[in-house]
Amino acid sequence: MLIDLHNIHKTYDNGQPLHVLKGIDLGIGEGEFVSIMGASGSGKSTLLNILGILDNYDEGEYWLDGKLIKNLSEKEAAHYRNRMIGFVFQSFNLINFKTAVENVELPLYYQGVSRKKRNELAMHFLEHFGLADWATHYPNELSGGQKQRVAIARALITQPRILLADEPTGALDSKTSVEVMDLLTELNRTEKVTIIVVTHESGVANCTDKIIHIKDGIIGETTLNEQHKASIFGTSTIMK
Amino acid sequence: MNDLLTEIWESIRRNKLRTALTGFAVAWGIFMLIVLLGAGNGLMNAFMNQGEHFATNTMAVFGGVTSKPANGYQTGRRINLNDKDVAITQSALFSGNVDKISPELFKGPYTLAFKSRHTSVYLNGCYPSLMEMNKIEMLEGRFINQNDIKQHRKSIVLAASHAIELMNGGEDYASLIGKTVTTDNITWVVVGVYKTDRTAQRVEAFAPITTMQMITNDINYVDQINFSFHGLTTKEENEQFEKTYRAALNRAHKAAPDDESSIWIWNRFTQNMQMDKGTHFIRTALWILGIFTLVGGIVGVSNIMLITVKERTREFGIRKAIGASPWEIMKLILAESVSITALFGYIGMFLGMVACEVMKMTVGQSSVEFFGETVQLFVNPTVGLGISVGVTILLVIAGTLAGISPAMKAARIRPIEALNDVN
Ligand SMILES: Nc1ncnc2c1ncn2[C@@H]1O[C@H](COP(=O)(O)OP(=O)(O)OP(=O)(O)O)[C@@H](O)[C@H]1O
Ligand SMILES: [Mg+2]
Question: Is the whole-model pTM more than 0.90?
Answer without folding.
Answer: no
